[in-house]
Write a structure and sequence with these properties.
With 234 residues, this protein is of the alpha/beta class. It has one domain: Class I glutamine amidotransferase (GATase) domain (Rossmann fold), CATH 3.40.50. It is built from eight helices and 13 strands. It has helices at residues 23-31, 45-54, 84-100, 109-117, 126-129, 156-160, 212-215, 220-233, and strands spanning 5-8, 11-13, 18-20, 35-38, 57-60, 104-107, 122-123, 147-151, 165-168, 175-176, 184-189, 194-198, 205-208. The chain has a nine-stranded mixed beta sheet with strand order 4-1-5-6-13-12-11-8-9, with helices on both faces. It has a two-stranded antiparallel ribbon with strand order 2-3. Bound molecules: manganese (II) ion. Manganese (II) ion binds next to loops.
Length: 234
């Protein structure tokens, strides 16, 4: 069987001035029957057009905070480091992917970029702007569930996961504030944050605030999310 080629957004370390990758993103794709390939960090539209044509699926990885300028806000001191090159590259690629109706999975920064690029807004820092007792910034090991999410019925996630409430890991300090009018919620955390979204009428444009790349080996739900992504890219 032909394995789909999956483009993986590069991680960027500004101190070391280097590209890097967490193995879980690559291994989760491999374990689900896809071939992961890390992309270059580039804002060259000609290259990005080619990439959008050549690849079968696209994984939007975690990383720096999205530039609040994407959603028309000033950067507050509580906002973390941004990587404007990734913002520009990923917004442009997402727009091409939507036009082509190819599959994309967003994880952590991925859900934030989807929402910001498509007209939504973010909490620049949850502790300051959405305080709660729920643990969203856990310590290792990261394959543990630290809070629950409600899986909204009649959504792509409820088709993948049969449980109404699932435990998820959580490692983020930002989250969706106002949802993009182009996205629908498919998972809500116990303290009311939108932690899963999808784009209606598209084959597979899904994003999660939690991290299946850390938990797919021990958690069936996490593996099933990867498997359904790869299946959509076949
Ligand atoms: Mn969380």
């Amino acid at each position: 069987m032909k394995k789909p080629l999956i483009a993986v957004m590069p991680l960027y370390d500004s101190e070391k001035v280097s590209y890097w990758m967490l193995p879980g993103y690559m291994k989760g794709i491999e374990a689900s029957g896809g071939v992961p390939v890390m992309l270059p960090l580039t804002t060259d539209n000609e290259i990005l057009d080619m990439i959008s044509q050549k690849f079968d699926g696209f994984l939007f990885t975690g990383g720096q905070d999205a530039d609040p300028g994407l959603y028309g806000e000033e950067k507050l001191t509580c906002c973390g480091e941004v990587c404007k090159e990734r913002d520009i590259m990923e917004k442009y690629l997402l727009e091409r992917i939507i036009e082509l109706d190819k599959p994309a999975l967003g994880i952590c920064r991925g859900i934030q970029i989807f929402n910001a690029a498509l007209g939504g807004t973010l909490y620049q820092d949850l502790n300051k702007q959405h305080p709660s007792d729920t643990e969203h910034h856990m310590s290792p090991p990261y394959n543990r569930a630290v809070h629950s999410v409600f899986v909204c019925s009649d959504t792509p996630l409820s088709e993948i996961i049969s449980d109404e409430i699932i435990g998820v890991n959580s490692y983020h300090h930002q989250a969706i504030k106002e949802l993009s009018p182009k996205l629908e919620a498919m998972a809500i955390s116990e303290d009311g944050l939108i932690e899963g979204v999808y784009m209606p009428d598209k084959k597979f444009i899904l994003a999660l605030q939690w991290h299946p790349e850390f938990s797919f080996r021990s958690d069936t739900n996490s593996l099933e999310i990867f498997r359904n992504f790869i299946k959509a890219a076949c």
